[in-house]
Amino acid sequence: MQILVTGGLGFIGSHTVVALAEQGFTPIIVDNLSNSELFIKERIERIINKKVVFYQADCNDYVAMEKIFQKHALQGVIHFAAYKAVGESITEPLKYYENNLFSLITLLKIMQNFSVQKLVFSSSCTVYGQAEKLPVDENNAVLPAFSPYGNTKQICEEILRDVIASQVLLQVISLRYFNPIGAHPSALIGELPRGVPNNLVPYITQTAIGKRPFLNVFGNDYPTPDGTCIRDYIHVCDLAEAHVKALEFLQKQNGSFIDFINVGTGTGNSVLEVIQTFEQVSGKPLSYQFAPRRSGDVTAIYADAQKAEKVLGWKAQRSLADALADAWRWEQAICKQTQELEKQT
């Protein structure tokens, strides 16, 4: 089965491509390389021991995307291609609305034209805003988003509901996932932020290896046990496997269908707990300082992931320590690669 993976060279996309290939699917990768690197394609091929099909294209480019659909008998789509930095979305909201909404709209139009009916949509726990109760289950209210990024995910889910309500034949699983971290255990692929990381774990690993002088912890006055934000940190390989499970579930659906499913561990960890766990698994003490709260951050959010287990047969298997150990191994591999390239030049 040929499955289109948009944003397939990105952090979550690349791990999902690996998981798809390992389960016998043929992933077709589309990525515009705006937040990913071309060498990840070769790394994916090393892991799965086969070539993958890749197109450098933008999901907003209707003509380019249509040509890809013409070339392949696609039987499903996993849509990752979106901008995802909460802070950046606050300073550049139009960039986020244009890309995140139009890419989905373009994709849905072409899917309809080519009778491709299965879609796994990359959503986010940010749709819940500052949740009224914890852990968050799928019946929690979708509250006003704390950022334009979160709002784009809410609007995309509304678009998907409306398309299905219009009698278009489409089966959709929208995966609302929490905080992906870690890397593939091979250390061949992982999170590769450009510039100063927006996410906690790459900031931690870059600080530990010496790329950053210290780690900023944004806010220590939240109403949590240690004053820092609480999140549900899920290993990216667990998350990738959830996408495959969602796709397999959709293969069994016939009529129009949409469902929303949390993907998380069910456990919340504070920023300081993540730092302490990293220090334990790496043996590296971290230099960090407290900074003012960051705009767009909610106090605490973590998943009730029972629905994913019941509907998809999926449950997170890897621990926070596992994820941090893999992230650290990946950071060391990237540092070594950079040093070798510098020697060659």
From TrEMBL:
InterPro entries: NAD(P)-bd_dom (IPR016040), NAD(P)-bd_dom_sf (IPR036291), UDP_G4E (IPR005886). It catalyses: UDP-alpha-D-glucose = UDP-alpha-D-galactose. Pfam families: GDP_Man_Dehyd (PF16363). CDD domains: UDP_G4E_1_SDR_e. SUPFAM superfamilies: NAD(P)-binding Rossmann-fold domains (SSF51735). Its EC number is 5.1.3.2. GO terms for cellular component: cytosol. It comes from the Bacteria. Keywords: Carbohydrate metabolism, Isomerase, NAD. The keyword DNA damage does not apply. This is UDP-glucose 4-epimerase. It comes from Raineya orbicola.
